[in-house]
Every structure is written in structure tokens, then in C-alpha cells.
Amino acid sequence: NAGIIGAATTTIMSNTITGTTVAGIGVTGLSDNASMTVTDNTITGGQNGIGHNAGIIGAATTTIMSNTITGTTVAGIGVAGLSDNASMTVTDNTITGGQNGIGHNGGIVGTATTTITGNTITGQTGIAFNGVVSTTNANGVAINSNTGITGTTADAVAFNAAVTGAGVTLNDNTNVVGATNGVRFVSLDGATVETVGSTITGAMNGFMATASTTAGAESILTFANSAITGRAGAGLSVTTTAGGSGVTTDLGTDLTLTGNPALALSGPNQSLVGNTLSNTVFNSVNGGNFIELANGALFEPGRPTIIDGTTALFDGVQVPAGSEPFLVQSVESRIIDFDDADTLGQIFFDSLTFADVGDLPGLVSEFAFRTEGFTRVGNPQTPGDWILRPDVSFDIVFGDLLADRYGLGGCSPVLDADGAVTGFACIAPAGGSDISPFVVDFMADLSGRDR
């Protein structure tokens, strides 16, 4: 009850330990340069399997390794908090908690670190961080290479308080499964979160991140080589608010997002690294949307950010250059972006070049004998002075390359020789079923207009 202080060391090894009413192992706290090692035990507590009740401070260290730990009503491992340069390492354990598998209740501050690796963890919430995580250590929270993290009634991994300026890694974890969300952050401010090589599933959302509602530093979310699934909600959901902190999301490579929608971005002050969807695989659930932008997402500053979707896959299908209209529209109809609300970013599939536009007569000739009927296309948006878009319904020829090239949601970006977007091109037949693109006028107008 008096804690472990100074340079004292405690080792608890190869025991069977049962605390019938409170904890199997209860520690008031560790401070200064003290250390505690708990290894190769079977530990059961009425409340906590292992309970650090006064926190780990100073340069104190706790190592919990290769144990079977059960906290019957509260947590398998419960920690009041870490501060200063303290550290806790939890590795290769089987941990079960009545409420939390591992519960951090007092925050992680200073340059303190928590490393959770190689474990199988089960609780109503698998791992819960209930205090502010503001450690300035780039590796402040490392949740890596665990073989199972299960939230039986709530989230698998939950950061229930602010994560401010801290580094969090969620790498190489398998079977991260939550009864609500797989992973959830309620308030990010200047945090860096990396998820690489992990499999994450939530009955609602797979990965849910919300930025701080007060102005602060931008947070960075990085994903790669992972499969993230939301069974009833979004695979990946990122939310910001006006006046709050921003978020940059890096979709990396070899990421699979499954949900309804697979990707949901809501709110201003958001960006995607490289303005690209990369080679992300977007899988819809029950025919739902692949991507939903909302509340000004990717509309910075005052115009849509152009997002390259040419290398992404949608239900396993890529939309390459020159795709038939039915393919383009089948994907576009399940993406909510600028075509649906003129305060959102624009996702496109086929970049135009000036050479494409210049060869308009050739395109018309090539497909003059391929017409297969007509389809009615509506563009109710009111165009701004920088974008050319028809504001009434019009006819385009189904199966015509002109529709393929210019008909992605009504408009496609025109790129200069350096790949920069200089404007947008659309099909705007003058009347009836005649193909009368305005491209000549568009090109003449482009040079004299500020875009």
C-alpha cells in the first residue's frame, strides 16, 4: 500500500495468484527509478487482475509478460496513469477483464510510453484509454502485433479522452473486433496515428476518428496494408468541425475499406495526402455507397479539391481511362461528392489533357457508328464562374467516347503539361440528341478566365 519507490525492484514470477474481492496484484504506485516485473503467472482478481492504483511516475517501469490475467468485474490490467518518463510494457499475455481488458484511467503524459504487443485481450472494451493522452513521445502508445483485441459489448480499442500531440501506432494487429467500433478516437489534436498491417472490424464502424472541436494542431492518420470493416456503418470515418482541429489522411497502399460507406469524410479542414485514393479497395455493404463526403469535406479553400480515383478499386473493379459510361456511372452514383453538393471535393477517374480535347474531331469520327441510344443526364448544380457545367438536363449518346471522356459526373478536370488542374470540361449538347460539345469555346475561354 505504500508503493515502490527509489531504485527498488520487484519481480513476481511463476505463481498462481488469486485476490477474491479486489486485485490479484495491487500496487499503490511506482515512482523515481523503481521497476516491477510480472512474468509467467496466472493471476485472478475480484476486480482487477493487476491494479496500479496510484500511477507510474518518474522513470519507473512496469513489465507484464507471459501471464494469464483475469479481472473479474473491472479490468484485467488497470492503470491509474503514466507520467514523466515512466513506461509500461505488456507483452505476450492472455488478458480478460469484466469491463476493460486493459484500462488506462489516468492519462499518459510527459514523455511516458505504453507498449502493448503480442497479447490476446478481451473485455467489454478491449483496451480503453479513459484519460488524456498527451505524451510528447512519438511512440507514446504502441499497440502492435497483438493476436486478438475484442470488445464484447463496446469498442475493441477506445481513446475516450483527447489525444493531443501524441504518437499512436496500431500496426500488425489481427482480429481487432469491436461490438460497436473496431477503433475509436473521440478527440484528436496534433496527434499522429499509424495503422499498418492490421485487420480491424466493428459492428458499426471499423475505424472512427473525430478531431477536437476547438482550434488546434492538425492530426495525421496513416493507413497501409490493412483491412478495415464496418459491418453497419463506415469502414473508415473521419469527422471534423468548423473552428476545430484539422485532419490529414494518408490512404497509403494496399488498404481495403469495407462499409456503408466504405469511406466517410465529414467536415472542413480535411485533406488526403497526394489528393489521391491510391490503390485503396472500396467495398460497399448491401449495395451502399463507396464514399460519402459531407459538411464541406475536401472543399478547401472555397472550391473542391480534385481527388484522383484512377487507381482505386470499387467492389474489386477499377475505373480506367476510357471506361464505358455504364461503368463510370455505376461507381459515380455511389460516391457523394461535388456532383451531389457543390460544397464538397470532387473525385474523378479520367484525367483529360489538352491533347485529348484537341483531338475532338477524331473522337467524334471514331465513335460516330457506335451509338446505342440516349440517356438523360441531369446537372442541377449552379455553376461557379470557374467551372463550366450545364445547369439543366441534357441528352448524351450512350456508348460514345465523348461521354467516357467528359461525362464523369458531368465534368472532368483538364490538366496542363505538368499535371496541374487548369479547369473542367463537360458535355453540353445544344439541343435534342445532337452531340454539340462546347469544347472549342471551352478552350478559347480557358486562357482568359481565372480558375
SSE map:
Layout: E1 9-13, E2 16-19, E3 23-27, E4 35-39, E5 42-45, E6 48-52, E7 61-65, E8 68-71, E9 75-79, E10 87-91, E11 94-97, E12 100-104, E13 113-117, E14 120-123, E15 125-129, E16 141-144, E17 148-151, E18 157-159, E19 163-164, E20 167-169, E21 176-178, E22 183-189, E23 192-196, E24 199-202, E25 207-211, E26 219-224, E27 227-230, E28 236-239, E29 247-250, E30 256-259, E31 263-266, E32 270-272, E33 281-284, E34 291-294, E35 306-308, E36 313-314, E37 317-318, H1 325-332, E38 335-336, E39 346-348, E40 352-353, H2 354-358, H3 360-366, E41 374-377, E42 394-397, H4 401-406, E43 411-415, E44 421-426, H5 439-446
Parallel strand pairs: 1-4, 2-5, 3-6, 4-7, 5-8, 6-9, 7-10, 8-11, 9-12, 10-13, 11-14, 12-15, 13-16, 14-17, 15-18, 16-20, 17-21, 18-22, 19-22, 20-23, 21-24, 22-25, 23-26, 24-27, 25-28, 26-29, 27-30, 28-31, 29-32, 30-33, 31-34, 33-36, 34-38, 35-39, 40-43
Antiparallel strand pairs: 36-37, 41-42, 43-44
Model description:
It is elongated and about 65 Å long. The strands form 6 sheets. Strands 2-5-8-11-14-17-21-24-27-30-33-36-37 form a 13-stranded mixed β-sheet, with no helix packed on it. The chain has 451 residues and is mainly beta. A hairpin with a 2-residue loop joins strand 36 (313-314) and strand 37. It starts with 8 loop residues before the first strand and ends in a 5-residue tail after the last helix. Helices cover 8% and strands 40% of the residues. Mean pLDDT is 79; it is low at 351-413 and 424-451.
